[in-house]
Give the backbone structure.
Amino acid sequence: MPELPEVEVVRAGLEPAVTGATVSSVTVFDERSLRRHNGPSEDFSYRLEGAGFTGASRRGKFLWLPMTGGAEALVVHLGMSGQVLLRDRETDDRLTRIRLDIHHPVHGDLRLNFVDQRIFGSMSINDYVDTVDVEGQRVPRQVAHIARDPLDPYFDDARFFGQLARRNTGIKRALLDQGLISGVGNIYADEALWAAKIHYDQPAATLSKARAKTLLAEVRLVLGKALAEGGTSFDAQYVNVNGASGYFSHSLNAYGQQGRECPRCGRLIVRETFMNRGSHFCAFCQRLRLV
DNA sequence: CCCAGACCCTGTAGGC
DNA sequence: TGCCTACAGGGTCTGG
């Protein structure tokens, strides 16, 4: 998916519609979208129907709607192709895997369609655990192993640098490790590495503290900028809750730009396969540095 | 523990 | 037109 900016756009779009709303009915069209729910689909529906939502929260690429009573939340992960579309009660969407009809005291009858082509995403009902680093803060159990994202005020920069210094793996692999830093995916990893002039396979531990700081700053910059532009969409697959696309694809410097000129030096951006994905970079600006 | 790779899925685009 | 391949923004599990 959807990386941090796109998930945040969805969260922000859902918040006013779900806060204070109650669930009228649940329809599960494809049980595979409940892979991460601990129990059968009947259990999922039973827990939701009649329950209310009290808000919309996020950590990294995980999204959840806290439920009334405070003991459970509806956890949503969009995977590679998931969407949550906010509709009226008459609207259906192709590839809807789960449908939630809800009622909001102000906005009336609404429908949430969880659409997911590849079914890497999921919905589930989850209980909470305390966070290990901030007293009084809880997250759904399923999210507990996910690190804070770099826009989270409690993100610990020093701890992140310390962990990088102990990793021998390539820096991009580390950036994509959601247990280290969350919310960064393939697009924004490539963009931040391009901006910081770092090769994707540079061993994390060989980065100087200064370059690591630059990289984290660029990660924050690119995530923030994408968020301001409503996220990145190349097609109708990545949209906000109203089905509209973001504009950040116009601002990409490296991702998907193979064969085009590097905006900094004019040489061609190349694409290499890495981790079953593409890595896009400028081989001149972003060179492996031997230590 | 760390690390690399395989795997989970479907739909679409492009080459032949 | 149809067939085939490559490709897609993620997470998790396993074996070394």
About this structure: The helical segments of chain A are 4-18, 41-48, 157-165, 171-175, 186-196, 209-228. The mean pLDDT of chain A is 94. The first strand of chain A starts at residue 22 and ends at 28. Residues 209-228 of chain A form the longest helix (20 residues).
